[in-house]
């Protein structure tokens, strides 16, 4: 089989004549094939120079012809220009062309008009695709591999008709990111429109509608970060915040996930950006799920059968797990009921010392136990926490008003005098973070949350004016939780921040 490649300027008369001659041969000969490459006049010289340099050819006019070695493979055989092609056709196929110059020019003009129309049509088709721009920071974090297959789906991003995925990693190299890009493309997910990689901050977060910022350093659970690491994180996320404020979409959703510095990172972003505070959230879901798992182990039920566990405070520095609203289903105790029957956890677990001390420490050490056994971070639970938060934020979680813990600026929601991101129980109502109905901030935690906010401010400024937390600092009083006054509950229910 003979396969020829014909390339030329769209408005070149000799390209038009060679094109019609090649079409005639293709119709007449069963094993003759022609592939045409039409180049706009202003792009022809650059294209010709690159092609000749790559193949070691010497040619400076339009058109250009060569023959592909279909069966042997390898570099094509250079034929030359129009006269060379005409001579080849006469010698091998005894076919020539007698097209007049006037007809050649008219066809060349039609070729140019047709080419421009095709380009405009292609641009129009491309403009109809409006992909959702999703950025993932620290994309070489192993959590990303767990996250991508479920993240790039209609179940999580139900509002997207297509997704343009941007993989950013400042500490990784281009080759590693290209490998991750290839793996993502190999998933063949229908929503993925394009995958691009980034290793510097140039144009970072441009047009971003969803930003996921994973941990910068792994593994987690290997001790508190040193002051130098904290300073570097503050500087980096201050720059992230400025870039997000200037380049991201106004309705962007920024999700920060990771270990000890997650609240700090989210607080710095919020301060450095000019966007609304409701656009930023730190993931506390994985910690909430660990707290549920510890209760489930204690009561002999599945983790999914423990609900409404609350995480207050700074996830990496003085959080407290609150069980005042926690319920358990299918508990095998003196009182039993159908599957929908639930009982308060505090009515069943009456060991108050265990709840106030051992249980809190058990939750704190659960991730470190995973790291010690596996040698890497708790990637599955981290990825699941991100997906849970995004589903709720995008309205894909049912019911939409369920309570869960999220790191947000909760100054207005729970009347806290602080400007830092802290974990608190929230619900989503009409696209807004709202205080959970019927729940107010317990007084014994209010002052400790103020201290957590002060410590976050010190870390951001590089100062150290607040003493570190102790185990007793976040312990509630040993008496039963007292419900807040009705007016406090009403005030909390009416507070919300825009997202």
Mind explaining what this structure looks like?
The chain is elongated, with a radius of gyration of 32 Å. Strand 5, helix 5 and strand 6 form a beta-alpha-beta unit. Helices cover 42% and strands 18% of the residues. The strands form four sheets. Strands 7-6-5-8-9-10-16-17-18-19 form a ten-stranded mixed sheet, with helices on both faces. The chain has a four-stranded mixed sheet with strand order 2-1-3-4. A three-stranded antiparallel sheet has the order 11-14-15. The chain contains 14 helices and 19 strands. The protein has 499 residues and is α/β, with parallel strands linked by helices. The longest helix is centred in the N-terminal third of the chain and has 28 residues.
What key attributes describe this structure?
499 residues, alpha/beta, 14 helices
- The geometry reads as elongated
Strand content: 15-25%
Total number of helices: 14
Q: What characterizes the major β-sheet?
A: 10 strands, mixed
Query: What is the oligomeric state here?
Result: single chain
From the N-terminal CA to the C-terminal CA, the straight-line distance is 63 Å
Widest sheet, order of strands: 7-6-5-8-9-10-16-17-18-19
Q: Work out the number of β strands.
A: 19
Let me know the average pLDDT.
Answer: 83
| Class per helix and strand makeup | alpha/beta
Low-confidence stretches: 471-499
As a percent range, the share of helical residues equals 40-55%
Gyration radius (Cα, Å) is 32 Å
């Amino acid at each position: 089989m003979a396969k020829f490649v014909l390339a030329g300027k769209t408005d070149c008369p000799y390209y038009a004549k060679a094109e019609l001659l090649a079409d005639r041969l293709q119709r007449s000969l069963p094993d003759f094939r022609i592939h045409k490459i039409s180049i706009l006049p202003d792009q022809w010289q650059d294209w010709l120079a690159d092609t000749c340099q790559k193949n070691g050819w010497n040619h400076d006019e339009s058109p250009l012809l060569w023959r592909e070695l279909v069966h042997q493979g390898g570099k094509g055989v250079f034929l030359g220009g129009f006269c060379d092609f005409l001579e080849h056709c006469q010698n091998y196929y005894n076919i020539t062309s007698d097209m007049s110059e006037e007809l050649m020019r008219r066809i060349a003009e039609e070729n140019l008009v047709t080419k421009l129309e095709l380009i405009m049509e292609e641009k129009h088709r491309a403009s109809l695709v409006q992909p959702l721009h999703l950025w993932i920071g620290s994309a070489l974090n192993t959590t990303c591999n767990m996250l991508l297959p479920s993240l790039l789906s209609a179940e999580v991003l139900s509002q997207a008709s297509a997704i343009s995925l941007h993989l950013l990693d400042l500490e990784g190299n281009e080759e590693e990111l290209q490998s991750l890009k290839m793996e993502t493309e190999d998933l063949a997910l229908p929503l993925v429109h394009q995958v691009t990689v980034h290793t510097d901050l140039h144009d970072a977060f441009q047009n971003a509608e969803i930003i996921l910022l994973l941990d910068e350093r792994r593994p987690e659970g290997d001790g508190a970060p040193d002051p130098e690491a904290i300073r570097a994180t503050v500087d980096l996320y201050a720059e992230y915040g400025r870039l997000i404020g200037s380049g991201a979409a106004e309705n962007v959703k920024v999700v920060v996930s990771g270990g000890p510095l997650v609240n700090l990172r989210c607080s710095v972003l919020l301060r450095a950006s000019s966007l609304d505070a409701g656009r930023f959230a730190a993931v506390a879901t994985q910690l909430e799920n660990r707290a549920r798992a510890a209760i489930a182990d204690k009561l002999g039920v599945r983790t999914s059968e423990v609900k409404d566990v609350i995480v207050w405070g700074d996830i990496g520095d003085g959080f407290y797990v609150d069980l005042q609203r926690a319920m358990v289903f299918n508990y095998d105790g003196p009182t039993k009921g159908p599957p929908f029957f639930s009982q308060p956890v505090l009515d069943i677990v009456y060991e108050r010392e265990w709840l106030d001390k051992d249980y809190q420490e058990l939750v704190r050490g659960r991730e470190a136990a995973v790291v010690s056994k596996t040698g890497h971070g708790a990637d599955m639970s981290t990825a699941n926490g991100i997906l849970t938060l995004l589903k709720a934020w995008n309205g894909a979680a049912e019911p939409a008003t369920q309570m869960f813990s999220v790191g947000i600026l909760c100054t207005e929601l729970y009347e806290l005098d602080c400007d830092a991101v802290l974990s608190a129980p929230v619900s989503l109502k009409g696209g807004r973070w709202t205080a959970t109905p019927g729940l107010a901030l317990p007084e014994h935690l209010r002052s400790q949350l103020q201290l957590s906010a002060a410590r976050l401010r010190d870390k951001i400024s590089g100062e150290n004016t607040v003493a570190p937390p102790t185990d007793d600092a976040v312990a509630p009083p040993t008496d039963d939780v007292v419900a807040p006054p009705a007016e406090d509950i009403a005030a909390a229910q009416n507070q919300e921040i825009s997202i």
